[in-house]
Amino acid sequence: MVMINDNGMSAKLKAVGLRPTRQRIALAEILFGRGDQPLGDQHLGDQHVSDRHVTAEQLHGEAIGRDVAVSLATVYNTLHQFTGQGLLREVVVDSGRSYFDTNVDAHHHFFDPSRGELVDINRDAIPLGDLPPPPEGMVVDSVDIVVRLKPTGR
Amino acid sequence: MVMINDNGMSAKLKAVGLRPTRQRIALAEILFGRGDQPLGDQHLGDQHVSDRHVTAEQLHGEAIGRDVAVSLATVYNTLHQFTGQGLLREVVVDSGRSYFDTNVDAHHHFFDPSRGELVDINRDAIPLGDLPPPPEGMVVDSVDIVVRLKPTGR
DNA sequence: TTCGTAATTTAGAATAATTCTAAATTGCTT
DNA sequence: AAGCAATTTAGAATTATTCTAAATTACGAA
Q: Which residues are paired to B147 by β-bridges?
């Protein structure tokens, strides 16, 4: 028996070895879904269609707002599982709160601390020279650039 | 009455408008002091002599270890005051824990998540091209690059 | 010196984000 | 339909940090 319409979220979950439960499907739709628009390509050129940056609290609130019964604990579990399976990427910009990004390609971020808001920066938009050699016994895992913003004037 | 030897920490504190209390002097010595070595230049060329990256918990432990009676609350207060006066810089590499850096010049970091360890990267060691324009009404406050490390092999 | 007062420190409570636990529920395979 | 492991969940626990209100301290004035 196949779900008639979960926007392919069940398939997406199965593809990464996660059981498509009601909660995971709903959270995946919120994170990756595109409302009523037709299914299709996930990208336009090199740009994700819907880049989202959410905290656990935010995602939970959004789910509750859509009358999806899901606990905060499950939201945390799910965010970490999605991250572990490469569906999400954790972004560290705030010591105190974790953000999760639906864009898992290499890229960077603008961050407005006053609003807690993140905006993606295409990787190629910031030309990077060579990095200095990492300490002995270590290799580079990722290069994360955060451009912190403040309001214009002062 | 002048303190015979606080390694100039009282003066350093006064210079930024902070009362040189026993606790602040002790924490400043731990953070900025150089043991028994003679006073002098804070830099060698462009390199800080003693770059330190500490969490509140770590600094508190270090103080207690030196028999400096100071509460954790005061350590937090002091770290924030020092940061506010430009003696320290907060580094965000871990959502969950704040690190404070005695190097306040523009520079970047290697971060080893397994050990929670930071290593400075000289600013000029990473050539940076132009940044894309920030969102309307915002200007760039800082550009922070974190090079995350993992053990060699695998 | 000694005072007076404002700044500072502090213990402990409070808060916030996140994780843990153990029990109830649910999704699949048989 | 049954069985069982995977998942969810409420609520407690943990961790980092901030707050509060009372005690202490630094420092200029007398």
A: A143, B110
